[in-house]
Design goal:
Blueprint lengths: L1 H26 L2 H14 L4 E2 L2 E4 L4 E10 L3 E12 L8 E16 L24 E15 L7 E13 L3 E11 L2 E10 L5 E11 L5 E11 L6 E10 L1 E10 L6 E11 L1 H4 L7 E12 L4 E13 L4 E14 L4 E11 L5 E9 L3 E8 L3
Parallel strand pairs: 5-6
Antiparallel strand pairs: 1-3, 2-3, 3-4, 4-5, 6-7, 7-8, 8-9, 9-10, 10-11, 11-12, 12-13, 13-14, 14-15, 15-16, 16-17, 17-18, 18-19, 19-20
Amino acid sequence: MKKFILWFLGSVALLLTLLISTVAGLLGTESGTAWTLGKAREMAPDMLNFESVQGHLLDRLVLGGVTLNLASADIELGELAFDWSPRRLLRRKLLVNEMTLTTLRVQSKPVPEEPEEPMTWPIELRAISPPVDVIITPVDIIDVEFSSAPDAAPLVLEAAGLGAYWNADDGVVLERLEVRGPGLELALEGRVNPLDNYLLEMHDRAAITLEDGTGFELAGTINGPVAGGDGQLELDQQLSGAAELGLTGTVLKPLVDPAWELSLQLRALSNALLGEGLPLDLSGQLDSNGRFNPGTAEGMAEVSGQFVSASEQVEFDALDARLQLTADIGKQEVALQRLELTQGGQPMRLTLAGDVSAEAVALEGDWDALQ
């Protein structure tokens, strides 16, 4: 019996050795990788195709002229370069040294509409930890076009880049996420910890240029736990350029019972943005609070604010605004309880209330000394 057990264990070890050697021979050489990928192409000739293979799957692999025919999109890829370190898996680390995609073309296809499933609410995010440390150093995508229809103008990106890692101690750390396209530059960095109510720390920067040359720059932070009943995100976003704006405040319980307390500070608004026909030198502040339940698509909001225009052509002081409404997005209905505009020290007063839906508008209002 003992000899049989030893023989059996020895046979299993030999078979495993032969299997590992065969897999290493297939995936660890250029000819073996080309043969394996060729078999994959033969099994799905209508879905996958490529023109050239350089390198192998256990080191650096470069595929040229890749096409994917999926049910939802046709994808063309000029070149895909992938380099990783499989030996690092022995130390519980998945290290991607390089991933570069060039000349990516995505053409979406119409798909049959399926009945939408009702949204499950609230959303529960489970605490998760990776079985191995994941390290992605540079991912670069160059020359990208997304088209939603053959005759639709494509969304063009000149380049995108990613660097990130994920481990049990630090969570998911985004070292860089950069996107560059016509009139747009966006950069994000930060972290989120799935073991601590998805605690988020994010910094963002963006530069936007409109077709007429009008430019904006955005910079800000988003911090706080996303998940659970104690979820609370602190926002601070500052816009400069053609408009000087600041958005600060708190979003409470974003995945359980979303509510907000926000303040928008308007410091300056250029005539280049408004147009020369509306010469305002406008500044002021809007404060808003409310809540919205995505599960029922119902919500309410209250907004109050005060604005000043110092323009010689259009000048006013202390223009106060008050707005209170409830909405049912599913039914496309809005009930306007109150819209009121008054000017401090002046008799001007405008009030409006009523209901607005996709089928009808019923509003009642009044004004005194409207200017």
